[in-house]
Amino acid sequence: MGESLYIIIAGVIGLGLGAVIAGLFLKNNGKKIEEEAREKAKSIIREAEITAEATKKDRILEAKEKYLRLKSEFEDEVNKKKNIIITNENKLKQREQSLSKELEQIKRKEAELDSKKENLNAQLHAVQIKKDELDKVTNQRISDLEKIAALTREEARDQLVEMLKDEATTKASSQIKDILDQAKLTATKQAKKIVLDTIQRTATEHAIENCVSVFNIESDDIKGKIIGREGRNIRALESATGVEIIVDDTPEAIIISGFDPVRREVARLSLHRLVQDGRIHPARIEEVVAKTEKNIEEEIVEIGERTCIDLGIHGLHPELIRMVGRMRFRSSYGQNLLQHSREVAKLCATMAAEMGLNAKLAKRAGLLHDIGKVWPEEAELPHAILGMELAKKYKEHPEVCNAIGAHHDEIEMTSMISPIVQASDAISGSRPGARREIMDSYIKRLKELEELALAFDGVNKCFAMQAGRELRVLVDAENVDDQTASKLSYDISQKIEKEMQYPGQIKITVIREMRAVNYAK
């Protein structure tokens, strides 16, 4: 028991000593670690201070360098502006000196002008005195002349003015004749040459198409088949085609009458197919007419394409090509419209080439100038304006559109091609036999032409010759002299141009014949 207690007490004492030793050891180690940490912190602080000091010095140096650079730039700018100011001041001084010299010169000139002005005033005063004296002498002489001639100044002036007026009128008439002759020799010579060359170089056929077509048959027995029982076949054919079919006593021929050439052509081709087939009855007639109309439309397109190829015109819109083909079945005053348009196209190309213009564009305008006549729909516009609108719609050249719209003077011409198309249209339409006019309008135009010339003073008789292309005017030889006759011819031509419409040109011939008649008794 005692030993155990001793052992326990010895153990407790041992533990206490170990704990004390361990505590002392830990205490010594903590102090050492703390001191090391403090030393390390101080070292870090010293390094940071050194780095901060170095950075501060670098910033200060950079700031000083930037300041010095900006200061140098500022001084350079100030020096430049100072130099500019000095230069401008020098220029102003020089300008001031030159202005002062000019001012001195102006003052000297003003002094000279004042001196000259005084001299002129003195001379003017002397002239006025002389003028007064001359007026007195003139008035005295005028009064003496009035006493001698028994005429007042106004009466003498009126007589002199009348004499000068007659003399001026005579000279003016003579000069007008000379000017016109000179203009005809110079200005018209080249134009006539171009037109004549164009007409001579354009060869075309002229044939008048009527409103009837003749369908030839091999024998008169076929007429009965065409007429049908109680005329039902011919009625069906007329109803399907819109034409009148005349079956008369003409041997081996049937007449197809209608104002529309397309309908007449459809009827003619349909009859040809029906006669060849031999089956002629209303149902077959309607079937053949429908096929023929389709074939005609295809033929129209083919005609338009072939025409464009023949003339060398490319790039036309398909609808314009179709309208060109329709021209084959239209006529204008009896003249086939397609042949007329082809001829106008060739004339335009020739004229444009002679004048150095675009021949292809002129040919295009000449071919399309009458497309307004073949538009299938009803329109209230003139055919020239309608054709221009169609050309614009299908993206034609502006010069072509203007030429189409202006070839009858509905709009103003804006290009050189427009008068060429107008002239070519007139040339084609005025050829002998090219067109057929209504007799009443033809006679009316000739009467108006003669009445217009008879309205002039001194005209005794006048006659329209050569289908209205020449007007012969007979004047009174006692009242109209040679110079007045020339002026009368010019005045009549001007009045015809202003008041009448006519194709081509009209030649005015004034005839002055002096007859001396006596009787032997």
UniProtKB/TrEMBL annotation:
InterPro entries the UniProt entry points to: HD/PDEase_dom (IPR003607), HD_domain (IPR006674), HDIG_dom (IPR006675), KH_dom (IPR004087), KH_dom_type_1 (IPR004088), Ribonuclease_Y (IPR017705), RNase_Y_N (IPR022711)
Entry's transmembrane regions: 6-26
EC code: 3.1.-.-
Coiled coil regions, renumbered to chain: 89-137
GO biological process, any: mRNA catabolic process
A cellular component term, taken from the record's GO annotations: plasma membrane
Tagged with keyword Nucleotide-binding: no
Domain HD: 337-430
Protein localization: Cell membrane
Record's keyword annotation contains Membrane: yes
GO molecular function terms attached to this record: hydrolase activity; RNA binding; RNA endonuclease activity
Record's keyword terms, sorted: Cell membrane, Coiled coil, Endonuclease, Hydrolase, Membrane, Nuclease, RNA-binding, Transmembrane, Transmembrane helix
One Pfam family of this chain: RNase_Y_N
SMART domains the record matches: HDc (SM00471), KH (SM00322)
Major location category of this protein: membrane
Major enzyme class: hydrolase
UniProt-listed PANTHER family: RIBONUCLEASE Y
Family affiliation: Belongs to the RNase Y family.
Protein's job: Endoribonuclease that initiates mRNA decay.
Name by which UniProt lists this protein: Ribonuclease Y
Gene name for this UniProt entry: rny
